[in-house]
Amino acid sequence: MKHIQITEKTVNEWLMITLGTVVMSLGIYYFKFPNHFSFGGVSGLAVVLGHWFPGATPGDFMMVINMALLVIGFLVLGRDFGLKTAYVSVLSSVVIWGLERLSPMAAPMTSQPLLELIFGVALPAVGSAILFNLDASGGGTDIVAMILRKYTSLNIGNALMLSDCVITVSACFAFGMETGLFSILGLLMKSLMVDLVLENINIHKYFHIITTKPQEIESFITDVLGRSATEMDAQGAYTHENRKVLLTVVNRRQAVVLRKFVRQTDPSAFVLIMNTGDIIGKGFRGLN
């Protein structure tokens, strides 16, 4: 297991992982469990097992399954086993197990199953997106995927999707067709929602600025926004006048400030602004 250097960045990262795990757990407990929604994964399996074995709660099953997978993961994967995955798996199990005892749910919060389904999908999707953005995962079936990836040549994505489908369809037999169809709808929504939230978390603005006043704009980008830029020479196809082209990437808040500054500094500047979500380089993501 890799040594973690305690820095402000590391602390903030683990706080965000904790936040993502808690948000995911709240969605599972308050909206999935009471409505018997099963979208696959350990939480979905726990919902179905809680119906067939009423002597234990879904939270109990989730705790047992996650702890068993953790032990198997450490035994099989050893040092390759992710500390973040272990932390999320333990924390989510403890949060849900504790909520069952501190805030028992005898029935759904509302009489609107579709509304509950939306929250049951949205909250775990937001939590999962936060985790994925920090190279963490929700544990559970992800541990199975890590083991399969090490010892087999199976298509892991297809294998996990198949297991999720089997668990989801089983809700039809356990809780009736209405709940089963809601669960199937939830499974479809979940994959779309995670991707949507993840894209919005990572979204940045890519500026392509054609200007006659590059020095002023470059100074603003580096000194005020704390970013860098790339400068290139260009020539207009119609006027054949020389211009400078500045390329830079900033976050959404900085984009508003930069756009206003460029407009004030060089009203004749030609500016292209595009969304970009996957950025690799200094100040953004590393190559690994």
Describe the structure.
The protein has 288 residues and is an alpha+beta fold. Helix content is 64%, strand content 10%. The protein has ten helices and four strands. It has helices at 8-35, 41-52, 58-77, 83-102, 113-133, 141-151, 156-175, 177-202, 214-224, 252-265; strands at 204-211, 230-235, 242-250, 270-276. The chain has a four-stranded antiparallel sheet. The chain is elongated. The mean pLDDT is 85.
Quick summary:
This protein is α+β, with helices and mostly antiparallel strands and 288 residues long. It is built from ten helices and four strands. The chain has helices at 8-35, 41-52, 58-77, 83-102, 113-133, 141-151, 156-175, 177-202, 214-224, 252-265, and strands at residues 204-211, 230-235, 242-250, 270-276.
